[in-house]
Amino acid sequence: RRFQLPYKTLYNSKVKNMFAAGRIISATADGWELTRVIPVAVLSGEVAGTAAALCLKEECGNHQLNTKTLQNVLKEAGVKIEF
Q1: CA nearest 51: which of 26, 23, 79, 82?
Q2: How far is Cα 79 from Cα 25, in angstroms, rounded to an integer?
Q3: For 77, which DSSP code?
């Protein structure tokens, strides 16, 4: 099986400048089980860190970041976000 974690699992739009990663991201049921494993925790941490850096660079809140821009930056860095 393959799963995709939506970007919005890494933040709460009510808290403008905070991201979560790993086991504390927003998930339930099968999604929660998936996020408990180390590779997913590591990947979500890299995505959250990259997103935070882009938010600083673009002077935007976490909920305003263009996800295509985030995906492109991650792909350029060699992060496998799609299989």
Answers
A1: 79
A2: 19
A3: T
Residue whose structure tokens are 């403008």: 16
Show the 3-state SS of 17-66. CCECCHHHCCCCHHHHHHHCCHHHHHHHHHHHHHHHHHHHHHCCCHHHCC
β partners of residue 19 = 11
Angle at which helix 67-76 crosses helix 38-58, to 10 degrees, equals 120
Within a 10 A sphere around the Cβ of 27, how many other Cβ atoms?
Answer: 19
| Whole-prediction pTM | 0.86
Over the stretch 13-64, which tens digit does the pLDDT of each residue have? 888 889 999 888 877 777 777 787 888 889 899 999 999 999 999 999 999 9
Please name the amino acid found at residue 52. A
